[in-house]
Design goal:
Low-confidence stretches: none
Mean pLDDT: 89
Distance between the termini: 42 Å
Order of helices and strands: EHEHEHEHHH
Largest sheet: 4 strands, parallel
Structural class: alpha/beta
Number of helices: 6
Helix content: 40-55%
Number of strands: 4
Shape: extended
Strand order of the largest sheet: 2-1-3-4
Oligomer: single chain
Length: 163
């Protein structure tokens, strides 16, 4: 007999991708358990949070949330406690820890994108290189860090782009 499905509710003031990645890692640790992932993206008010919590109340649910605004994080904690739900704040403690160590205040901007830095541009350049010299076209072989060789239709191009 299989265990009943556990609902993993992802609540976010953006798309929920950050929490969803954690949920995937979490699910991998329980291969025999059936999970149902339910997303609540773009929550902006306490009323949005209340609506999400009402959907979870009385269910076998775990709440994983990424909310930037301190007021929303506190409201979510309060709502989860009153509904007797297990919850995990993925951004609150890390934001506070970095602020304490760095001495700088966080911007507290929901849906903020990471800055385009040197690592990003190196990654884009590597992808462009892989596409430009795909199938041995051009004279880039000498500049390549890795050369993938194999028979047709074995996913060399997607692998080179991933690498």
């Amino acid at each position: 007999m299989t265990a009943p499905s556990v609902e993993l509710h992802v609540v976010s003031d953006a798309t929920g991708e950050t929490a969803a990645r954690l949920v995937q890692a979490l699910e991998a640790q329980f291969p025999e358990q059936e999970f149902l992932e339910i997303r609540h993206p773009r929550v902006e008010t306490v009323a949005d949070l209340q609506l999400a919590v009402n959907r979870m109340r009385g269910r076998p649910a775990v709440v994983v949330y990424t909310l930037v605004e301190p007021e929303l994080r506190e409201a979510m904690r309060t709502l989860c406690r009153s509904a007797k739900l297990h919850y995990c704040d993925l951004l609150g403690h890390p934001i506070e820890a970095v602020a304490k160590v760095s001495g700088q205040a966080a911007k507290m901007t929901p849906r903020a994108r990471p800055p385009l830095n040197e690592a990003y541009f190196r990654r884009m350049s590597a992808i462009e290189f892989a596409v430009k010299y795909d199938d041995g076209v051009g004279r880039g072989l000498g500049d390549a860090d890795i050369v993938l060789v194999g028979v047709s239709r074995t996913s060399k191009t997607p692998l080179s782009i991933y690498l």
